[in-house]
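Example record

One chain of 196 residues, shown exactly as stored in the release files.
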Amino acid sequence: IQLGYGPLDGACWLSPNDHGQEVLALAAALGIEGRLDVFRGSYQGPLPARSLVRRCWELDKTQQKYRGFIAKYRPRLEALKDALHTGMPWEPQACFVERFHLIHEYRRCHFYDPELPHELVPEDWLGPEAALLFHEYHETLSGQALKYHDAVVGKPANGHPPSSQSGREKDATEPGSTRPCPEMPVIPESALVPQE
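Predicted C-alpha coordinates for this chain:
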Protein backbone atom coordinates (compact mmCIF):
# COMPACT_ATOMS: atom_id res chain seq x y z
CA ILE A 1 0.00 0.00 0.00
CA GLN A 2 2.79 2.43 0.86
CA LEU A 3 4.26 1.94 -2.61
CA GLY A 4 0.91 2.87 -4.16
CA TYR A 5 -0.29 -0.63 -5.10
CA GLY A 6 -4.00 -1.36 -5.36
CA PRO A 7 -5.65 -4.80 -5.22
CA LEU A 8 -7.18 -6.04 -8.46
CA ASP A 9 -8.32 -9.08 -6.48
CA GLY A 10 -7.17 -10.86 -3.35
CA ALA A 11 -3.89 -12.08 -4.84
CA CYS A 12 -3.03 -9.58 -7.59
CA TRP A 13 -1.88 -6.03 -6.82
CA LEU A 14 -1.24 -3.35 -9.45
CA SER A 15 0.74 -0.13 -9.69
CA PRO A 16 1.14 2.27 -12.60
CA ASN A 17 4.70 2.85 -11.37
CA ASP A 18 7.62 0.44 -11.61
CA HIS A 19 8.36 -0.52 -8.00
CA GLY A 20 9.37 -4.09 -8.84
CA GLN A 21 12.84 -3.89 -7.30
CA GLU A 22 11.45 -2.33 -4.11
CA VAL A 23 8.85 -5.10 -3.83
CA LEU A 24 11.50 -7.79 -4.31
CA ALA A 25 13.72 -6.14 -1.68
CA LEU A 26 10.79 -5.98 0.75
CA ALA A 27 9.94 -9.63 0.06
CA ALA A 28 13.56 -10.59 0.76
CA ALA A 29 13.56 -8.60 4.00
CA LEU A 30 10.37 -10.39 5.08
CA GLY A 31 11.67 -13.79 3.98
CA ILE A 32 8.82 -14.41 1.51
CA GLU A 33 10.64 -14.23 -1.84
CA GLY A 34 9.30 -17.63 -2.91
CA ARG A 35 5.69 -16.66 -2.22
CA LEU A 36 5.21 -13.91 -4.79
CA ASP A 37 5.84 -13.12 -8.42
CA VAL A 38 6.48 -9.69 -9.92
CA PHE A 39 5.33 -8.89 -13.45
CA ARG A 40 5.56 -5.82 -15.64
CA GLY A 41 3.00 -5.27 -18.35
CA SER A 42 0.40 -2.98 -19.85
CA TYR A 43 -3.38 -2.88 -19.58
CA GLN A 44 -5.06 -3.79 -22.86
CA GLY A 45 -8.71 -3.26 -21.91
CA PRO A 46 -11.55 -3.81 -22.51
CA LEU A 47 -12.46 -1.05 -20.02
CA PRO A 48 -10.93 2.44 -19.93
CA ALA A 49 -7.91 2.67 -17.64
CA ARG A 50 -9.82 4.91 -15.20
CA SER A 51 -12.40 2.15 -14.74
CA LEU A 52 -9.63 -0.26 -13.78
CA VAL A 53 -8.29 2.37 -11.37
CA ARG A 54 -11.69 2.62 -9.67
CA ARG A 55 -11.62 -1.16 -9.09
CA CYS A 56 -8.20 -1.09 -7.45
CA TRP A 57 -8.09 2.16 -5.46
CA GLU A 58 -10.66 3.91 -3.28
CA LEU A 59 -9.96 7.32 -4.72
CA ASP A 60 -13.30 8.70 -3.46
CA LYS A 61 -12.18 8.13 0.15
CA THR A 62 -8.82 9.78 -0.48
CA GLN A 63 -10.53 12.69 -2.26
CA GLN A 64 -12.83 13.10 0.75
CA LYS A 65 -9.82 13.18 3.09
CA TYR A 66 -8.17 15.85 0.94
CA ARG A 67 -11.41 17.86 0.84
CA GLY A 68 -11.64 17.82 4.64
CA PHE A 69 -7.98 18.81 4.98
CA ILE A 70 -8.43 21.78 2.64
CA ALA A 71 -11.66 22.89 4.33
CA LYS A 72 -9.94 22.83 7.72
CA TYR A 73 -6.58 24.36 6.91
CA ARG A 74 -7.29 26.91 4.14
CA PRO A 75 -9.11 29.26 6.60
CA ARG A 76 -6.34 28.78 9.17
CA LEU A 77 -3.68 29.74 6.64
CA GLU A 78 -5.67 32.83 5.68
CA ALA A 79 -6.11 33.77 9.36
CA LEU A 80 -2.36 33.45 9.95
CA LYS A 81 -1.56 35.53 6.87
CA ASP A 82 -3.99 38.21 8.08
CA ALA A 83 -2.35 38.16 11.52
CA LEU A 84 1.10 38.54 9.96
CA HIS A 85 -0.13 41.36 7.72
CA THR A 86 -1.48 43.29 10.72
CA GLY A 87 1.77 42.81 12.65
CA MET A 88 0.27 40.40 15.20
CA PRO A 89 1.71 36.94 14.46
CA TRP A 90 0.61 33.95 16.46
CA GLU A 91 2.70 32.96 19.46
CA PRO A 92 5.67 30.69 18.67
CA GLN A 93 4.28 27.89 20.85
CA ALA A 94 0.93 28.01 19.04
CA CYS A 95 2.68 27.86 15.65
CA PHE A 96 4.79 24.90 16.79
CA VAL A 97 1.69 22.97 17.89
CA GLU A 98 -0.26 23.92 14.77
CA ARG A 99 2.59 22.82 12.50
CA PHE A 100 2.75 19.49 14.34
CA HIS A 101 -0.99 18.93 13.77
CA LEU A 102 -0.73 20.07 10.15
CA ILE A 103 2.03 17.54 9.38
CA HIS A 104 0.21 14.62 10.95
CA GLU A 105 -3.14 15.43 9.40
CA TYR A 106 -1.60 15.81 5.95
CA ARG A 107 0.19 12.49 6.42
CA ARG A 108 -3.17 10.85 7.17
CA CYS A 109 -4.47 12.07 3.79
CA HIS A 110 -1.34 11.46 1.77
CA PHE A 111 -0.82 7.95 3.18
CA TYR A 112 -3.82 6.73 1.14
CA ASP A 113 -2.89 8.57 -2.05
CA PRO A 114 -1.42 6.06 -4.54
CA GLU A 115 0.13 8.98 -6.46
CA LEU A 116 -1.30 7.87 -9.75
CA PRO A 117 -0.38 9.69 -12.97
CA HIS A 118 -2.52 12.71 -13.79
CA GLU A 119 -4.34 10.90 -16.60
CA LEU A 120 -5.63 8.21 -14.20
CA VAL A 121 -7.12 10.39 -11.44
CA PRO A 122 -10.41 12.29 -11.61
CA GLU A 123 -10.25 15.68 -13.31
CA ASP A 124 -11.13 17.42 -10.03
CA TRP A 125 -8.48 15.51 -8.03
CA LEU A 126 -7.58 17.53 -4.91
CA GLY A 127 -4.17 15.99 -4.19
CA PRO A 128 -2.13 18.80 -5.81
CA GLU A 129 -4.22 21.53 -4.14
CA ALA A 130 -3.82 19.88 -0.73
CA ALA A 131 -0.07 19.56 -1.30
CA LEU A 132 0.29 23.25 -2.19
CA LEU A 133 -1.77 24.24 0.85
CA PHE A 134 0.32 22.01 3.10
CA HIS A 135 3.62 23.44 1.86
CA GLU A 136 2.48 27.08 2.04
CA TYR A 137 1.00 26.76 5.52
CA HIS A 138 3.98 24.75 6.78
CA GLU A 139 6.36 27.41 5.47
CA THR A 140 4.28 30.23 6.96
CA LEU A 141 4.22 28.55 10.39
CA SER A 142 7.87 27.52 10.42
CA GLY A 143 9.49 30.82 11.44
CA GLN A 144 7.51 31.15 14.67
CA ALA A 145 7.49 27.38 15.27
CA LEU A 146 11.29 27.26 15.10
CA LYS A 147 11.54 30.17 17.54
CA TYR A 148 9.62 28.09 20.07
CA HIS A 149 11.74 25.00 19.33
CA ASP A 150 14.97 26.96 19.75
CA ALA A 151 13.77 28.53 23.00
CA VAL A 152 12.89 25.13 24.49
CA VAL A 153 15.46 22.79 22.99
CA GLY A 154 18.14 25.16 21.80
CA LYS A 155 19.66 25.55 18.37
CA PRO A 156 21.53 22.67 16.75
CA ALA A 157 25.17 22.24 17.73
CA ASN A 158 26.45 24.82 15.27
CA GLY A 159 27.92 27.33 17.67
CA HIS A 160 24.78 29.40 18.04
CA PRO A 161 23.32 29.76 21.54
CA PRO A 162 19.62 28.99 22.16
CA SER A 163 17.23 31.88 21.56
CA SER A 164 16.42 33.94 24.61
CA GLN A 165 12.91 34.90 25.61
CA SER A 166 12.10 38.57 25.80
CA GLY A 167 11.81 39.79 29.37
CA ARG A 168 8.63 41.71 28.59
CA GLU A 169 5.49 40.49 26.85
CA LYS A 170 4.06 42.96 24.40
CA ASP A 171 0.52 44.23 24.59
CA ALA A 172 -1.68 42.40 22.04
CA THR A 173 -2.42 45.66 20.26
CA GLU A 174 1.25 46.58 19.86
CA PRO A 175 2.83 45.90 16.43
CA GLY A 176 4.99 42.80 16.53
CA SER A 177 3.05 41.29 19.42
CA THR A 178 1.90 37.70 19.36
CA ARG A 179 -1.43 36.09 20.03
CA PRO A 180 -2.62 32.51 20.43
CA CYS A 181 -3.64 30.54 17.38
CA PRO A 182 -7.45 30.29 17.33
CA GLU A 183 -9.16 26.97 18.04
CA MET A 184 -6.09 24.83 18.68
CA PRO A 185 -7.37 21.23 18.51
CA VAL A 186 -6.22 18.50 20.84
CA ILE A 187 -5.42 15.46 18.73
CA PRO A 188 -5.69 12.12 20.53
CA GLU A 189 -2.74 9.75 20.27
CA SER A 190 -4.79 7.35 18.14
CA ALA A 191 -5.08 10.04 15.45
CA LEU A 192 -1.33 10.00 14.82
CA VAL A 193 -1.59 6.56 13.18
CA PRO A 194 -3.39 6.43 9.83
CA GLN A 195 -6.73 4.68 10.19
CA GLU A 196 -9.50 3.78 7.78
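Notes: Confidence is low (pLDDT under 50) at residues 162-196.
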